[in-house]
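Task card 7
Instruction: Convert sequence to structure tokens.
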Amino acid sequence: MARTIPDVRFLAPRSASALLSRRALLAGFGVVGLGALSACGRNTTMAASPATDGTLEKKLNLYSWGDYDNPDLIDAFKKKYDVLVQVDSYGSNEELVAKLSTSRGTSGYDVVVPTGSNIPQMLKHDLLQELDLSLIPNFKHMDPNFTNQYFDPDNKYSICKAWGTTGFVYNTKKIKRKMTSWQDFIDTAQKEAAGTTSLLEDPWEVSAIALAALGYSLNTQDEKELDEARTIILDKLAPNTKAYIGNVATGMIQGSFTLLQAFNGDARQGLAEAAEPDDWKFVFPTPSANLWMDCWAIATGAPHPDSAHAFINQMISPETAVEQLDYIGYPIGTKGLAEAAAKADLDEQELIFPSQKVLDRLEPSKQTPADQIRTKIYADAQARSGA
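Output:
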């Protein structure tokens, strides 16, 4: 039976919003997103938000990735504070940036959820307003691993909403060798998994496979290093890649893939839905991978800033953390969540929470001018694969 949620208005139905995958981010933002930002610079007049005074407005407009919050928690917020929550969905950071930059502070949205690597450019163009952390007391419960990030060192504009990393999942019935590294991924894609390998729909992530195997920074801007990565991707991976997909769970269920580059939470979903989950193994590969983070933020010109702060405060609360994690499949950055998830007996917890040893070797993705090179590598790889 479908769940009835009378107090929350979703502009995109869940059947449709599921297609707006929150992790279908394309690093092509370096080309497309900056174009959208070009219309909005520091000298552009942006509409200002009303001042906060602690009195919650009767409405909140949330603009986020599709199906990225537990509707029960949104409904609980509405009932607790008597605030009507309207939810609209986007499928990429480019779409979010375009909406905010062209509206110049009049989008009507309050809370937005950009990926961390997009925040520096958004701040440069005044698309986000400063948070009042005194109105978000649950910030004290955030795990230090996910605060004070390079894109917002003092959390003046953002708070971790969800985080994850990238690795790969493989079918152990078809691939007998032990897999631990990106070099293993490259080797296996040319042998046991030739023609049954999938890569993510993300230029940065695809380039990161080769850069990691070569021992280079995943964010390198060195053209020689990127040329070496290009050779590996076009000559070794692309000819053996069957598809570039964001929905890894579907790829696992279909049974036509044996090796898939994957975000850890998506791999967990695939294991939950696969007919033979014991046949699959997920790897946090060495030497490095992306530590991505989606963030709560408030749009410049937000018409309901007090409700926006109250909403963020509730959604990072330790009391709601397990429910949110169980729904979206990714941890939300609060302290003690792994222990709480263990008490709740959630499935595949080792996929949700990489060890501190793994966390310490991850490298958050950054936007750089070299993203255009990565986008070209990705496009050429797709052409080489016939995808």
